[in-house]
Amino acid sequence: MAATVPDDLLVVLIGDMVTEEALPTYQTLLNTFEGCDDPTGTSDSAWARWSRGWTSEENRHGDLLNKYLYLGGRCNMRSIEVTIQHLITNGFNPQAKKDPYRGFVYTSFQERATKISHGNVGKLARQHGEKSLARICAQIAGDEGRHEKAYQKFSEEILKRDPEGLITVFADMMRGMISMPAEQMTDGVNPNLYLDFSEVAQRTGVYTALDYADIIEHLVKRWDLENLEGISGEAEKERDYLCRLPDRYRKLAERSMNKKKKATEDSPPPAKAFEWIYGRAA
Ligand SMILES: [Fe+2]
Ligand SMILES: [Fe+2]
């Protein structure tokens, strides 16, 4: 089944699976959003029902990918499970600061990032003749697409009621980089595992700096920030900053990708060994 999937794509798929498998961390995060949490574990508020429903749906992603990789027989499942265990142990702080505004901006961004990433793995799998993986990834990307819509809708409602509040938070979060949930991953062997994995994701085109710029652009357009009215001078400045951001990021991304491309042509960097695939290089 997975025999036609090249090792670099396999590595990206494993990284994506590890990210999905750290779901306890994300459910914990949702429950830090003040007023939008599930204080008893069976609370009947809409937020609590959403957060449990979301978690149960997300739970399928890691399960399905894990089974696919296990049955494919090409990965070192022990190393992968060790990575998952470490990642959950290490935790993750996306700077939501208990604030649902920040939380929903973050999840609006991140669900779209996962949709793009799973979607691209699926497309590449199809190109390599692996139809079942293509189907699996398309299904997961579809779930992420619905999650993305929900979180963007929540943010849109906040924007209607408190435009300055949301703008301020969005701009503040964009001044830092949006952190990726898998940044703390380690297999106990390679201290640069996350960087090596992101490098392969970038090289295969599964998730690149251009996608980062595209996501910001999508959010700015989706929330129609350009035509937002009735905000103060300070918030207007933040709004203008946000509207200019996609272009700025795109230029930076293009420049750095071109530079890298040229450097790679001059002297290709050595492929990195991944314990996840028994030390084969990707
Ligand atoms: Fe997911
Ligand atoms: Fe999701």
Quickly describe the structure.
The protein has 282 residues and is mostly helical.
Report on this structure.
This protein is mainly alpha-helical and 282 residues long. It is built from 10 helices and 2 strands; from the N terminus they run ααααααααααββ. A hairpin with a 5-residue loop joins β1 (273-274) and β2. α1 (7-21) packs across α4 (77-90) and α9 runs antiparallel to α10 (233-266). The mean pLDDT is 96. The structure holds fe (ii) ion (2 copies). One fe (ii) ion (FE2) binds at residues 58, 111, 114, 144, 147.
Quaternary state reads single chain
What's the β-strand tally?
A: 2
Q: Kindly state the percentage of residues in helix.
A: 55-70%
Mean pLDDT value: 96
From the N-terminal CA to the C-terminal CA, the straight-line distance is: 20 Å
Strand content: under 5%
Note the total helix count.
Answer: 10
Helix/strand-derived category reads: mainly alpha
The largest beta-sheet arranges its strands as 1-2
Q: So what's the overall shape?
A: globular
Radius of gyration: 19 Å
- Show unreliable segments: none
Q: Which molecules are bound in this entry? A: fe (ii) ion
List the helices and strands in order.
Answer: HHHHHHHHHHEE
Largest sheet descriptor = 2 strands, antiparallel
